[in-house]
């Protein structure tokens, strides 16, 4: 896997883990009432979206190498 593609996946994974950590033990009602929590979760969703946009922009499946003419 190309390093820049791996970094995008790691960024996405980190954002998912952060969302889970931020919301662990919170009810939806608590989430709705906590501006700081909502802002933090929304930011992680932005990071997740940006990572997937970058992944989409990269050639995720490299083309097979072409033999060179001798």
Feature tags:
3 helices, 70 residues, mainly alpha
How are the secondary structure elements laid out?
Layout: H1 3-23, H2 28-33, H3 35-57
Helix pairs in contact: 1-3
Describe this structure in words.
- By secondary structure, the chain is mainly alpha-helical.
- Helix content is 71%, strand content 0%.
- It has one domain (3-57).
- The chain has three helices and no strands.
- Helix 1 runs antiparallel to helix 3.
Summarize the structure in short.
The chain is mainly α. It is 71% helix and 0% strand. The chain has one domain.
Report the sheet with the most strands, covering strand number, pairing sense and barrel closure: none
Q: What gap, in angstroms, lies between the N and C termini?
A: 29 Å
**Integer tally of domains:** 1
Envelope shape: rod-shaped
- With helices defined by DSSP (H or I, 4 residues minimum), what is the helix count? 3
Rg is 18 Å
How many strand elements? 0
Order of helices and strands: HHH
Q: pLDDT under 50 segments (min length 5)? A: none
Sheet-strand content, in percent, reads under 5%
Instruction: Report the helical percentage.
Output: over 70%
Q: Which structural class matches the secondary elements?
A: mainly alpha
Average pLDDT works out at 90
